[in-house]
Amino acid sequence: MNTNSRARNLCLILIGLAWVATAALYSRLPEQVPTHWNAKGHADGFSPKPWGPFLLPLLLLGIFALFRALPRISPRGFEIERFRSVYELFALAIIAFLFFLNVLALLSGIGVAFPMERAVFAGTGLLLAILGNFFGKLRRSLFVGIRTPWTLASDEVWLRTHRLGGKLFVIAGIGLFVCALLGWGGAALLLVAVALAGGVPCVYSYLLYRRLEGGKGGP
Questions:
Q1: N or C of the chain: less Cβ packing under 10 Å?
Q2: What is the chain's mean pLDDT, rounded?
């Protein structure tokens, strides 16, 4: 069994566990299940039974189906097959993160007390760090990566932008994870980290394209 198959199988296992766990705890969940939390970790959005508890498991299935469909609809020149192993790892990381959120939602629903805000920020930090670690192995794609007009127009701009973006994602992710464990910061810190990790590479891709093209008009 190759890496791609293992990653897909792990995704299916996590999706199955999400459905099993939700079904097993269904009777212990309240009639109005918490499905959204504010920046302080307090539930401020609820969905009723019977479908409320299964929103996240359904989302897991939908995301998995989307990841399966994208390689089939990628146009010529942007084929996902060129970096398929990394693509499958991306899918696994995102499915694992959503599974983690499903576990947190179930624990909150049955009344287990824990710092939701810190748990979500720690999970988000790990996700950013894991994704950033593989950015340098991505190839031009319309669906995955830092997709600006300038990265899509040049392999060199794509590669160098993703090398920078990968480092920033890892730094932002580790910073978020550590701050969450220590109880520092909050939603503002998350927004700043994501804005810097995502915004700086976008600006960099434009400046790099202009420099490589000798100041000529870009796409």
A1: N
A2: 89
